[in-house]
Design brief:
There is one protein chain. The chain is 49% helix and 14% strand. It is an alpha/beta fold and 263 residues long. Strand 5, helix 5 and strand 6 form a beta-alpha-beta unit. It is globular and about 55 Å long.
């Protein structure tokens, strides 16, 4: 299937590893030019070189903290200066710490809100004028299965990612007439560094091995295994493609059947 991504320009946030990198690699394989970011300059420049070398597309790596509005502005301006436009935005950010309600201060709630909600809002705010002017654009927010079925011990992520969903669903209606779609993709348990870090932390608290803890997750998943980043990235590529032009305002899980809800 030709996704119509050849010669499109995509910005993928937090793309140095995990799901962000997998999405960036998938879009590059489909022919899209890339702007990718992460906090460390050396890391993101190295990743940009690897993706460019493997795919043959042009990749701009920018050191930026997406929770900092000044960094977001610099990221967008760098991308527009290099490519002239941004057609596709994939918002993404590292997850906030695990823990229960009483373990977090107001400052930690504010930090999680800046990381997950404010970053998505500011990235969208910066790219939307150009998308509306060209009457074509794709915004895809990487959220979590936790917005539909909360995950124990992840109160910060459960709460703030749900706010991103409300923002995106409302924005989708506001910009649909301009040919801009806004969707959310909800990763389930996927073999990323973040999930492995959570497994190590939870396993240590319970006195078991990380492998044993991951096996508990796998028992909850009808497919009996956690997912791979490439499986997630395949849907992300479709959602930002030309072929998904009539699909907006949705939240789609990639979870092996973990969510039990009907809708």
């Amino acid at each position: 299937m030709d996704l119509g991504l050849n010669n499109k320009v995509a910005l993928v946030a937090a793309a140095s590893r995990g799901l962000g990198r997998a999405v960036a690699e998938e879009l590059a394989a489909e022919g899209a030019s890339l702007i990718i970011c992460a906090r460390k300059a050396e890391t993101i420049e190295h990743v940009a070189g690897e993706i460019a070398g493997a795919s043959g597309v042009e990749v701009l790596g920018v050191a930026a903290d997406v929770s900092n509005p000044a960094d977001v502005a610099r990221l967008i301006s760098s991308g527009v200066a290099r490519f002239g436009r941004i057609d596709i935005l994939v918002t993404n950010a590292g997850g906030p710490p695990a823990g229960q309600f009483e373990s977090f201060s107001l400052a930690q709630w504010e930090e999680a809100t800046r990381l997950l909600l404010h970053s998505a809002v500011e990235l969208a705010r910066q790219v939307l004028p150009g998308m509306k002017e060209r009457r074509w654009g794709r915004i895809l927010n990487i959220t979590s299965i936790a917005v539909k079925q909360p995950v124990d011990n992840l109160i910060l992520s459960n709460s703030v990612r749900a706010a991103v969903t409300g923002f995106a669903r409302t924005l989708a209606n506001e910009v649909a007439s301009f040919g801009v779609t806004v969707n959310n993709i909800m990763p389930g348990y996927t073999r990323t560094e973040r999930v492995e870090e959570l497994a190590r932390m939870m396993a240590e608290k319970q006195g078991i091995t990380p492998a044993d803890f991951i096996a508990r997750w796998e028992k909850e998943i009808p497919m009996g295994r956690i997912g791979s980043p490439r499986e997630f990235a395949a849907l992300a590529a479709f959602l930002v493609s030309e072929r998904a032009s009539y699909l907006t305002g949705t939240s789609i899980p990639v979870d092996g059947g973990w969510i039990k809800a009907l809708l």
